[in-house]
Design brief:
Layout lengths: L1 H20 L1 H9 L5 H22 L1 H10 L9 H20 L6 H17 L6 H36 L10 H6 L14 H39 L6 H5 L4 H17 L1 H9 L6 H18 L8 H15 L10 H26 L3
Helix pairs in contact: 1-5, 1-9, 1-11, 2-3, 2-9, 2-12, 2-13, 3-9, 3-11, 4-9, 5-6, 5-15, 6-15, 7-13, 7-14, 9-11, 9-13, 13-14
Length: about 350
């Protein structure tokens, strides 16, 4: 029974991750006016499922990193440890999702590992160098790279726009074209060429799908690693389950992540789509290309970058590249606050869970 409950805690984190993270790949579709929230969520969920299943092939490095890469040799891995990590991470991600706050599941997991390990074995139970080099450094650097990359891509997109004959005879004014190449003021004299519009919108859908695919590929192995630990701690499991130890955790986590995406992805979507920066098809495409590139590049290397940090960093790059001024309605400060408190809150929840379990 204890084993089953802890496995359910792991799957609960997968559910929470889906609800909080699905928006990171599709917010630009909604914010850019390409499609509605429901269709965007469905598209993001399908691509996330494909990315999660692709982790069966390319996610092994991350499974290894999160199942044993941060713990010192000889650390007493136990079901209590896994339970503490899951309560810390899932508890915070569920809370943040309810508040509509996009947070990093990767940071929450890392906080849970640190909090639970400190209670069980003290600082000696952690590989601090591995945590710094394989987790903290990528988590801190990736959003900065995303800002710079998307700023550069935005300049490239502007150049490409100037090279493409975007208009049929008769002309909408230049100011309206610069604001949005596909939408003109009412009674405008010129309309965009249909093939240009279809190409940009099609690329936007593809880039959004690539971002969601990358998210599934990078996030599923991190959570599945703890189901691998549960399996290793349960030698009484049927031989068939143990034999496919690397397969069934990834499949189960992928499924629950998809369910969470459909169930609870709308709150965070509204924040990222409408309260970070104004978007159109061009800027949304740039943000997705930058996000998917960085996350896909990090996964085979076993670097647990945060899709939240990368995607929001991409939106920040768009915001600053477009010269958008802050206003009281945007959520950027709230998002940055969530980044700062995620790791310590998850660590405290995990530590409290492990400490209380000693008295149970």
């Amino acid at each position: 029974m204890t084993l089953l409950l802890i496995a359910l805690l792991v799957l609960a984190l997968a559910w929470a991750n889906g609800a909080n993270d699905v928006a990171k790949g599709v917010a630009t579709l909604t914010g850019g006016g390409v499609t509605g929230a429901r269709r965007a969520i469905v598209w993001g969920t399908l691509c996330t499922l494909l990315g999660g299943l692709a982790a069966l092939v390319w996610g092994g490095a991350l499974v290894s990193t999160f199942s044993k890469g941060f713990l010192a040799s000889g650390f007493p891995v136990s079901l209590t440890f896994v339970a503490g990590v899951m309560v810390g991470a899932a508890g915070w991600v569920f809370t943040a999702t309810r508040l509509g706050l996009p947070v990093s599941t990767t940071h929450a997991l890392l906080g849970g590992v640190v909090g639970a390990a400190l209670v069980l074995a003290g600082p000696e139970g952690l590989r601090t160098a591995a945590i710094a080099n394989k987790a903290l450094l990528p988590l801190l650097v990736s959003p900065v790279i995303a800002v710079a990359l998307c700023w550069g891509l935005l300049l490239t997109a502007r150049f490409v726009e100037k090279m493409i004959p975007a208009w049929s005879p008769g002309c909408c004014d230049q100011e309206a074209w610069q604001k949005n190449p596909f939408v003109c003021a009412q009674n405008a004299e010129q309309l965009p060429l249909p093939w240009v519009q279809r190409i940009w919108i099609g690329l936007h859908w593809l880039s959004s799908g690539a971002t969601s695919f990358a998210r599934g590929l990078n996030d599923v192995p991190k959570i599945a690693a703890f189901l691998v630990l549960v399996t290793a701690l349960a030698p009484s499991l049927p031989a068939a389950v143990v034999q496919y130890n690397a397969v069934w955790p990834i499949v189960a986590v992928t499924l629950f992540m998809g369910l969470g995406s459909v169930w609870g992805g709308f709150r965070v979507l509204q924040v990222l789509a409408h309260r970070v920066t104004p978007m159109d098809t061009r800027t949304g495409l740039v943000a997705n290309v930058g996000t998917s590139f960085l996350v896909l590049a990090a996964t085979p290397l076993g670097l647990p970058v945060s899709t939240t940090h990368v995607s929001t960093g991409a939106l920040m790059g768009i915001r600053w590249g477009e010269g958008v001024k802050p206003d009281q309605a945007d959520a950027l400060k709230l998002i940055l606050f969530g980044w700062v408190i995620t790791l310590p809150v998850a660590a405290l929840l995990a530590a409290a869970t492990v400490w209380l379990s000693r008295w149970a």
